[in-house]
Write a structure and sequence with these properties.
The protein is built from 10 helices and no strands. The protein has about 240 residues and is mainly alpha-helical.
């Protein structure tokens, strides 16, 4: 009885209330402004769809997530912390380290654009400059020279002469190189503990006992005693300054 009454109520409500509809139409237009506005809308939708990839390519996310993955591997804790936690932590650290750059982009590009003071193309040109400055600070000269050579463009005299499509891969390679160096430094103390434990077990004749089972508690104890998370976070943040 209750189900039937509820169904009748929904039917009467749907008849009495007209739900709004959304229509997308493609119609010919004689005004160039309409076509330009449509192309801008398509461009914005495309940028939003590629936002995760752009965040990885031009921000500090790559270095942070690789270093945190190295940290988990060096501890030997398998899936602890989980991959979702590492990704979320890397994402929030990316927002933290990139906040000055994002603030500058909002000031010089986004705010003037929404106020109608500049065009969409001018907003893009202004917004790219802070990102280029950030990437130039983190990019190594040899990596930049490599991609300039591979692109077969004339040798740039200033930073403005370096195209963005050349700067981005050079920046990503530099980020990977720096992340691997930091990962190597993270591995060293835990590798020493593994070697000491393995040597002790071999000397005691306990060859069938996996050294990882014994060394893992000692590695966790060392990491907690030295306040490892604070050291790693501090090193990651300071590496961008």
């Amino acid at each position: 009885m209750i189900v039937i009454s509820f169904s009748l109520f929904l039917r009467n409500y749907s008849i009495a209330q007209e739900l709004p509809t959304l229509r997308l139409e493609l119609a010919p237009s004689d005004k160039p402004q309409d076509v330009a506005g449509t192309l801008q809308l398509l461009g914005i939708v495309t940028v939003l769809a590629l936002a995760p990839s752009i965040a990885i390519m031009v921000t500090s996310f790559t270095r942070i997530v690789v270093v945190l993955s190295f940290l988990r591997s060096s501890l030997g804790t398998q899936q602890i912390p989980p991959g979702q936690v590492i990704t979320a932590l890397a994402l929030f650290l990316t927002f933290f380290t990139m906040f000055p750059t994002f603030s500058q982009i909002e000031k010089v590009s986004w705010q003037p654009y929404i106020k109608g003071e500049i065009t969409f193309q001018e907003a893009i040109d202004r917004g790219v400059k802070p990102l280029r400055e950030f990437m130039f600070r983190q990019t190594r000269e040899n990596d930049l020279a490599l991609f300039v050579k591979l692109s077969k463009i004339p040798r740039p005299n200033t930073r403005d002469d370096v195209p963005t499509y050349v700067l981005i891969p050079a920046f990503m390679v530099s980020e990977l190189s720096t992340a691997f160096q930091m990962g190597f430094m993270l591995y060293l103390p835990f590798l020493v503990i593994d070697m000491i434990v393995a040597s002790i077990l071999m000397a005691m004749g306990m060859l069938m006992l996996p050294p990882v089972m014994i060394s893992l508690p000692f590695k966790l104890l060392l990491f907690v005693l030295v306040d490892g998370w604070s050291l790693v976070m501090n090193s990651l943040v300071q590496s961008f300054r």
